[in-house]
Amino acid sequence: MFTPTWQSKLEDTFLWIGGWRLTLAIHLLYSKSGIQFEAKIGDLIRGLTTGGDLGELAPNQIKRIDRLQRKTIREERVLSDKLAKQQESVADR
Q1: pTM of the prediction?
Q2: Which terminus of the chain, N or C, has fewer Cβ atoms within 10 Å?
Q3: Which of 11, 17, 40 is nearest to 86 (CA)?
C-alpha cells in the first residue's frame, strides 16, 4: 500500500475507513489519461507530437499500471475481509 512516511498508522486507518483506496487513485489516473488522450487524438493521428502528459502513456506503462491495479485489488480485498472479521468480533461482544 502506498502511504506517505510522515503519515501515522492512525491516519492510514481513518483514510481506509473513510473510503480512500489506492484503487481510487488508479481509477483517477485512468480517467485523467483517457481525457487527455481524447483531447489530443487528432494531433496523434496527424503524427504531431504533443507535450508528454498522461494521454501519452506507453503500452508498457499501461501494462505496469494494470498489474499494480490487479495486485492492489487483491490486497485491498484481504484487508477489507480482515476489517470485516474484526468488526464482527467486536459486535459479538
Answers
A1: 0.67
A2: C
A3: 17
| Dihedrals phi, psi of 17, to nearest 5 degrees | -65, -35
In this predicted structure, what is the pLDDT of residue 2? 61
The closest alpha carbon to 53, from 69, 66, 40, belongs to 40
Q: Which residue has the cell 510522515?
A: 6
Lowest mean pLDDT among 17-21, 62-66, 72-76, 78-82: 17-21
Q: What are phi and psi of 7, to 5 degrees?
A: -90, 135
User: Residue 68: CB partners within 8 Å, gap ≥ 6?
Assistant: 26
Whose CA is closest to 79, among 4, 7, 3?
Answer: 3
Length of the chain: 93
Q: Do 72 and 26 form a contact (C-beta atoms < 8 A)?
A: yes
Q: Which residue has the higher pLDDT, 29 or 40?
A: 29
Neighbour count for residue 55 (Cβ, 10 Å): 19
